[in-house]
C-alpha cells in the first residue's frame, strides 16, 4: 500500500496533474488526462502493488512503440553511405510505411506474419 512517503502529487483547477512517485527509482509525471488515482497490479512473482494509472497507461502505449521500432529494425533499407538527412527521410518514410502496411495486411486478412 502506498503511503505519503511513496508519492507527492498536486492537481490544479485546470486538470493538470504533477506527480513524483517512487518505485525502484523516482519517476516524475505530468498529465492533463489523469488524476492521482492508484490501481492495484500484480507482477511476475504474484505480488500485488499499487501503481499510478498514469504509469500503467504510459507503459501500455510505450509497448506499441517498442514493437514498431523492433519491426522496423528487421527490414531497414538504410545504407551506411547515405547522408544523414537522407537516412532520416528513409527511416521516417520507408520503415514506418512498411510496418503500417504489415499491420493493415494482418488486420484485413486475419493472418499471422512472422518477420
TrEMBL record:
UniProt-listed Pfam families: DDE_Tnp_1_7 (PF13843)
Residue ranges constituting the PiggyBac transposable element-derived protein domain according to the UniProt record: 9-102
Keywords assigned by UniProt, alphabetized: Membrane, Transmembrane, Transmembrane helix
Residues passing through the membrane, by range: 84-105
Domain of life of the source: Eukaryota
Coiled-coil intervals, chain numbering: none
Stated name of the protein: (apollo) hypothetical protein
Organism: Parnassius apollo
